[in-house]
Design a protein that fits this description.
The protein has 408 residues and is α+β, with helices and mostly antiparallel strands. Helix content is 52%, strand content 15%. It starts with 9 loop residues before the first helix and ends in a 5-residue tail after the last helix. It binds flavin-adenine dinucleotide.
């Protein structure tokens, strides 16, 4: 088991430098354009694929880094470049993790490569869980998957919303209800292969931030997928459902779970994205404060500005430490007994929201314009307190874990 250390090893330092170079030279210069266009930045994804940043190999290497720091370090650097473009680059990873976590070896080998495509023909993937009436309350999901035994096919019907890469993905991973009586324990995940009839894109959302990342509804109308598209396989599902039904019967209650466990493992990664955006805005603000003069001296000469920068940096470093702790715990199999994953996402996302707002203030009128990047960074940062469990849900998870009480 990897000892916890705050010092990156030589390999990690090299990867960090490489990613930082890509973020600075390729992502950051393209950020304003793709934010305005509100379109998936295919040429940038392709560039990332060419150098090996957009690839299964790269994510697998970071994911399986025994120290747990590979993913947070990669996320921080890419999102430092730009959040919208970085999400377009790493969005496929959420679907890939869904398959890695639940799929058989054969499913992993078959579907993950199709999610990424290759440098000459890049593809993306989507993870579709949220629905119009099931956001935080995942257990209210309505999309149904019914097994057609005669054909060994699953039939999916429902509407998914907010899917990153939804409708433009080569492979969609769809979470659906197979047993409505046991809440979220009756959910299962399915692969919807490329060009499957019945899957279509609903509305594409025009967003406040991360506008280079495609977010859309996904409509499923009698979508038939082969039996082998059930992640983990039927036998495992049947066993799991039988256990959950027994437990539900013993407890005499419908098992209900408000998005609690679903994204626990990916939460530190979202925290790391937030750290990247916060650090980017802080750096712009620090630079500006040292060069902008008013009243005959740089504005950083005023404690009112300098102390804000001190607080911003302190919060960013604290957020990173929480993220690294949680990632290390998750990778080394230590249970989140105090909801450390949620703590890291909560603190880092609120830090990004606040630090980017402070950066606008420090840049004054310039901060409020699109001539400077902090305005975009602040719009982008707003997503972190919302997706993969809102701040309120994180507080609920933390409070319930600490108290053992069914706090509502
Ligand atoms: C840009 C973007 C990309 C996304 N990408 C994906 C994706 O790829 N795949 C996917 O499946 N989903 C995705 N999501 C969905 C995201 O995870 C949900 O938006 C999020 O979980 C919140 O759900 P909701 O929007 O329905 O809000 P709601 O659950 O309706 O919440 C509304 C408000 O009520 C609060 N609230 C709800 N319940 C409680 C409670 N019990 N106690 C206190 N407060 C509460 C919430 O905190 C929030 O402030 C994405 C969303 C966005 C905006």
């Amino acid at each position: 088991m990897a000892e916890f250390t705050l010092e990156l090893n030589d390999d990690q330092k090299q990867v960090k430098e490489w990613l930082h170079g890509f973020a600075a030279d390729v992502i950051r210069p393209a950020a304003a354009e793709w934010d305005e266009r509100e379109e998936t930045p295919w040429p940038v994804i392709q560039e990332a694929a060419k150098v090996g940043i957009y690839s299964l190999d790269f994510y697998a290497q970071q994911f399986f880094d025994p120290t747990g720091l590979g993913i947070p370090m990669a996320m921080e650097e890419l999102f430092w470049g730009d959040a919208g473009i970085a999400l377009s680059i790493v969005g496929t990873g959420l679907a890939a993790v869904g398959v890695l976590a639940n799929g058989t070896e054969e499913q992993i080998g078959t579907w993950i490569p199709q999610m990424y495509g290759d440098a000459d023909d890049v593809k993306v993937a989507a993870f579709c869980s949220s629905e119009p009436d099931a956001g935080s309350d995942v257990a209210s999901m309505r999309t149904r998957a019914v097994y057609d035994e005669a054909k060994d096919e699953w039939v999916l019907n429902g509407t998914k919303t907010w899917a990153t890469n939804g409708g433009i993905a080569n492979v969609h991973v769809v979470v659906a209800v197979v047993d409505p009586d046991i809440g979220s324990k009756g959910h299962a995940s399915f692969i919807v292969p490329p060009n499957t009839p019945g899957l279509s894109q609903g509305q594409k959302f025009k967003k406040h931030g991360i506008r280079a990342s495609h977010t859309a509804e996904v409509v499923l109308e009698d979508v038939r997928v082969p039996g082998h598209c059930l992640l983990g396989g039927k036998e495992k599902l049947d066993e799991r459902l039988a256990r959950a039904r027994e437990r539900a019967k013993a407890g005499g209650e419908r098992v209900k779970n408000a998005a609690m466990a679903t994204f626990e493992a990916s939460r530190p990664a979202v925290g790391a994205m937030a750290v990247g955006t916060a650090r980017a805005a802080y750096e712009v603000a620090l630079d500006y404060a040292k060069t902008r003069s008013q009243f005959g001296r740089p504005i950083i000469d005023n404690q009112g500005i300098a102390f804000q920068l001190a607080d911003m940096r302190t919060r960013i470093d604290a957020a990173r430490l929480l993220v690294w702790r949680a990632s290390w715990m998750a990778t080394t199999g230590k249970p989140f007994t105090s909801a450390e994953g949620s703590m890291s996402k909560l603190y880092a996302s609120e830090t990004a929201r606040d630090v980017t707002a402070q950066a606008i203030q420090i840049l004054g009128g310039n901060g409020f314009t699109r001539e400077y990047p902090v305005e975009r960074m602040h719009r982008d940062a707003a997503i972190y307190t919302i997706f993969e469990g809102t701040s309120e849900i994180q507080r609920l998870v933390i409070a319930r874990t600490l108290s053992g009480m069914p706090i509502r």
